[in-house]
């Protein structure tokens, strides 16, 4: 980019100082601008017309002429000796500079004059070059943040010039970046920052004529953030639509964002000059595995460097255990994990075939641990038994995980134990009877096989749950020993009342795994004592 200005100095810029010396000659210093018509005076006294005038420059005769008989000069039209002896230079050039001597003869008297001619020119062809930079159609230049930018101002002035850079920015003004008297003046800015954005001016000032030329260029510093745009998803007000947002802040100037489908026809949904572009799509237009991409376009993005974000749509897929078991009065936690859904699904727990949304309360505690959605039900009762749904919904579809919760009551549990006991009792009794009949055939007396059992426990058959290790032996009535030395065995079953201590113990258990474990460790068999 080069801005060239040509300055034509057309007006006469002439300053002359003359003095008349005592010996009848004069000395003059003349300054002429390039192209000017310059008149070098010779005979300055009186009105007489010299018969002959000779003009010498730097020791050589350049022209001679005189009076009315002056002939065309050998240098053509440019130089001419006027009737009064003055030298006329039509369009001064730098080559005309020098010390001129004239010798005019009037009669038998010679007049000698000395003229010093200086030709000044410029500043001209003043130009600014800034690079590397991209030019806009209006001449404004663009540099990219972080690059090293060189500034160069050049101009031509005769005999010398002063160059001066100045900067006017949004936050700072710098009156004089640098100044010199060379034909050009340059500087560089390394790692250019947005603060260097502004108007750069270069002024060339002729040191003799004080003619000055200004050149100025606006420089913009463009930049983009290192990060990629951010793709977001928000439910639209109308539930049949879905809004995708793409944001890319921190770029200057505002980038162009474009939402398009990556695969297939690459349909463009929206394209706009903005830092935040949202597009609202009908859910019916979306399908599994569809990739929606937001691309950023910016002049400051190097070729081949793409900044984008995208979604590949995936339906939700909630996962978890389909069966859960809990004991009455305890707590249970149902867990559902949703990792598949893109965009993220809205995952909720629901109850019953009507799929009533579970509202958090002291009974229902909802929690989220990363992708795991947990429902904890406190103080389980038989009413809690039934089907639960972990419902996951994203713009593509809805998918549910069914969880069936079985609640075990204490009575049902005891019933099972009674069953086991009765079975054991039948087997035991059969053995005892067989043995007794065998050992004492005359009288049947229970207790022969139990003689070694400790007295305080021997006559009690206790059946307890593991959680309750208290055996209520005090409640057991004992029969007095028979006179014949035989014992009568009393069999009593201790029913464990669903007492308060149990509540306290099980309230701490929350996970179904723990529940199950505690159920499994209850082994009634080893609690049957004889
Ligand atoms: C007289 O003229 C000559 C040349 O023209 C010059 O060199 C000299 O300085 C002059 N002398 C005086 C006293 O003006
Ligand atoms: C000589 O003649 C020209 C043109 O006629 C005039 O402009 C100039 O002033 C004259 N020079 C002197 C020293 O009288
Ligand atoms: C001026 O010219 C005349 C005649 O051509 C000559 O005699 C004289 O010496 C010259 N004067 C000077 C100072 O050159
Ligand atoms: C110059 O010429 C005039 C006549 O034109 C004459 O009177 C005079 O004497 C001459 N001077 C010299 C020094 O020759
Ligand atoms: C100024 O530029 C013009 C065009 O580029 C050129 O023709 C001219 O010679 C230049 N002037 C000087 C003094 O270099
Ligand atoms: C040139 O165009 C750019 C971008 O359109 C604008 O920011 C700038 O102000 C313009 N410069 C001038 C000097 O008009
Ligand atoms: C500045 O520009 C001038 C004239 O175009 C050139 O001669 C000079 O080498 C340049 N300086 C730099 C540092 O580029
Ligand atoms: C102007 O720029 C020069 C060179 O970069 C620097 O030395 C000077 O401090 C600046 N002046 C102001 C007022 O910013
Ligand atoms: C050119 O420089 C001179 C001396 O430094 C100064 O007085 C003059 O104002 C300058 N001209 C311009 C147009 O700046
Ligand atoms: C040149 O620049 C100076 C200082 O920057 C300013 O005062 C002046 O008005 C400018 N002149 C032109 C013609 O732009
Ligand atoms: C999405 O874009 C709209 C419109 O630009 C805006 O109102 C909304 O806040 C954006 N949503 C998010 C999550 O950024
Ligand atoms: C999704 O698209 C990719 C690439 O286009 C393809 O390899 C993959 O099989 C597709 N998956 C499904 C489930 O359509």
Structure keywords:
binds 2-acetamido-2-deoxy-beta-D-glucopyranose, disordered C terminus, disordered N terminus, Immunoglobulin-like, mainly beta, 34 strands, 7-stranded mixed β-sheet
Parts with pLDDT < 50 across at least 5 consecutive residues: 1-24, 444-530
Strand content is: 35-45%
The domain count comes to 6
CATH homologous superfamily grouping of the largest domain: Immunoglobulins
The shape is rod-shaped
CATH topology description of the largest domain: Immunoglobulin-like
Quick check: average pLDDT? 76
The ligands found in this model are: 2-acetamido-2-deoxy-beta-D-glucopyranose
Number of DSSP strand runs? 34
Rg from alpha-carbon coordinates: 56 Å
CATH level-two architecture of the largest domain: Sandwich
CATH class category name of the largest domain: Mainly Beta
Which class best fits the helix and strand makeup? Answer: mainly beta
Helix percent reads: under 10%
The biggest beta sheet, please?
8 strands, mixed
Distance between the termini: 109 Å
Number of helices: 4
């Amino acid at each position: 980019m080069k801005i060239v200005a040509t300055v034509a100095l057309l007006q006469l810029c002439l300053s002359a100082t003359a003095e008349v010396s005592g010996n009848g000659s004069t000395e003059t210093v003349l300054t002429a601008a390039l192209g000017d018509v310059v008149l070098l005076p010779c005979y300055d006294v009186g009105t007489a017309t010299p018969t002959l005038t000779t003009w010498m420059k730097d020791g050589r005769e350049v022209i001679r002429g005189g009076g009315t008989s002056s002939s065309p000069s050998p240098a053509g039209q440019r130089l001419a000796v006027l009737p009064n002896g003055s030298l006329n230079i039509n369009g001064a050039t730098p080559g005309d500079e020098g010390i001129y001597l004239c010798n005019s003869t009037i009669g038998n008297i010679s007049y000698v004059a000395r003229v010093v001619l200086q030709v000044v020119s410029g500043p001209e062809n003043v130009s600014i070059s800034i690079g590397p930079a991209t030019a806009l159609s209006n001449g404004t230049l663009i540099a990219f943040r972080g690059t090293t930018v060189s500034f160069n101002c050049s101009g031509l002035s005769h005999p010398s010039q002063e160059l001066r850079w100045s900067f006017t920015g949004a936050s700072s003004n710098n009156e004089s970046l640098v100044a010199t008297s060379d034909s050009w003046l340059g500087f560089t800015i390394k790692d250019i920052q947005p603060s260097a954005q502004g108007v750069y001016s270069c002024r060339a000032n002729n040191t003799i004529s004080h003619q000055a030329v200004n050149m100025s260029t606006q420089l913009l510093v463009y930049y983009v953030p290192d990060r990629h745009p951010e793709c977001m998803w928000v439910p639209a007000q109308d539930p049949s639509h879905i809004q995708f947002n793409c944001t890319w802040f921190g770029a200057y100037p505002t980038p162009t964002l474009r939402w398009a489908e990556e695969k297939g026809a690459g349909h463009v949904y929206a394209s706009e000059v903005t830092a935040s572009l949202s597009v609202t799509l009908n859910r019916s237009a979306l399908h599994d595995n569809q990739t929606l991409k937001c691309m950023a376009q910016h002049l400051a993005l190097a070729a081949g460097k793409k900044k984008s974000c995208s979604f590949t749509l995936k339906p939700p897929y909630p996962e978890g255990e389909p069966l859960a078991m809990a004991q009455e009065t305890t707590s249970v936690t149902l867990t559902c994990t949703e990792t598949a859904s893109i965009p993220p699904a809205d995952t909720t727990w629901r109850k019953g075939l009507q799929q009533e949304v579970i509202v958090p309360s002291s009974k229902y505690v909802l929690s989220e641990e990363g992708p795991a959605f947990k429902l904890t039900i406190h103080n389980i009762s038989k009413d809690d038994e039934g089907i639960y749904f972990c419902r996951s919904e994203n713009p593509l579809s809805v998918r549910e995980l069914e969880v069936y919760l079985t609640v075990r009551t204490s009575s049902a549990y005891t019933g099972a134990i009674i069953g086991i006991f009765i079975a054991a009792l039948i087997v035991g009794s059969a053995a005892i009877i067989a043995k007794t009949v065998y050992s004492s055939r005359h009288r049947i007396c229970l207790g022969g096989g139990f003689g070694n059992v400790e007295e305080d426990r021997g006559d009690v058959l206790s059946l307890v749950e593991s959680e309750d290790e208290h055996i209520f032996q005090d409640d057991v009535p004992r029969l007095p020993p028979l006179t014949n030395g035989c014992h009568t065995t009393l069999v009593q079953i201790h029913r464990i009342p669903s007492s308060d201590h149990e509540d306290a113990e099980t309230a701490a258990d929350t996970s179904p795994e723990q529940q199950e474990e505690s159920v499994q460790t209850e082994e009634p068999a080893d609690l049957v004592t004889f």
